[in-house]
Amino acid sequence: TVIVCGEAGKVEARQNYYPISDFEQVVNALDRFVLRDAALFPASADLRVSHVCKEGLHFYMLVNEGEQLYHGTLQTNIFGKVHKWDPWAGTIVEQCLEGHEQGPRIPLQLDRRQSIVFCVDPLQKPVIADHVQSKLNEQKIELHSGWRVNGTVNAIDPETPLSSWADWSGMEHFSGTVTYHNTFDLKDVQEIQSAVLDLGDVHEIAQVWINDQEAGVILWSPYQFDIRGFLKAGTNQIKVEVTNSMANRFDELMLPSGLLGPVTITTNNKQERVAR
């Protein structure tokens, strides 16, 4: 098929010719005849997609270079079993596909600055879900107060709302690390399928411990940590170390600093999938 651009009605009709009236129609015209290597639904200019084939396996790496959370699906021209490789968590899990009229798609949720890799094995049969129901029995714990703060010039009342160090007496031009402590209670952790700690607004680097076990370090938003593997029934301890910019000290600035929140812990107790 040849795509021919010209004024409407003036393009000579020939077999295997596909006329268009404007060059901006080229991409849509190509979609009629060529299956894209990878397609996003909805489309997004913020996501960069790379496709590499190695030893019969197809790897699709996606990076969110934008500032907003992307939620949608990915469709590839290679059909097979999919595994999701998460470079941030260091995990590899089987990925269930969603059924669509135009073919199965990979569910995708990618926040700003995050990346993910999907490995497609065309020699294995994919798992396609007819029905996916998630976020059942979701519970949210809010930690707005009760924070004990160490490393400040003056004592901070635990009932004081989270705010920037630049607003605290004696901390206006402080640069360094401040430690926050708090607790939260859980009943039956065996039923918890997932647990995410969201620190909200942080300036700049956050390192988290749950029950004296390190849960990770994050340098930019979203400051979200998978804490499922560190939880226990009863009272849980949380420690957050926040390090701000050196500009406050060296340049005598008053940049926002510290843990500003809101801090939440979201748990989901089960996830149901009906697959075929």
Name some characteristics of this structure.
2 helices; 5-stranded antiparallel β-sheet; elongated; mainly beta; 24 strands; single chain; 4% helix; 276 residues
Task: Write the SSE topology.
Layout: E1 2-5, E2 17-20, H1 26-33, E3 38-41, E4 47-54, E5 57-64, E6 70-76, E7 81-86, E8 91-95, E9 97-98, E10 106-110, E11 115-121, E12 128-136, E13 139-142, E14 148-150, E15 177-186, E16 194-198, E17 201-203, E18 205-210, E19 213-218, E20 224-226, E21 234-243, H2 247-250, E22 258-261, E23 264-268, E24 270-275
Parallel strand pairs: 1-2, 9-12
Antiparallel strand pairs: 3-6, 4-5, 5-11, 6-10, 7-8, 7-11, 12-24, 13-23, 14-15, 15-21, 16-20, 16-23, 17-22, 18-19, 18-21
Low-confidence stretches: none
Shape, principal axes of CA atoms: elongated
| Main sheet properties | 5 strands, antiparallel
Q: Give the helix level as a range of percent.
A: under 10%
Number of E-state strands = 24
Structure commentary:
By secondary structure, the protein is mainly beta. It has two helices and 24 strands. The strands form seven sheets. Strands 4-5-11-7-8 form a five-stranded antiparallel beta sheet, with no helix packed on it. Strands 14-15-21-18-19 form a five-stranded antiparallel beta sheet, with no helix packed on it. The chain has a four-stranded antiparallel beta sheet with strand order 13-23-16-20, with no helix packed on it. A hairpin with a 2-residue loop joins strand 4 and strand 5. The longest helix has 8 residues. It starts with a strand and ends with a strand.
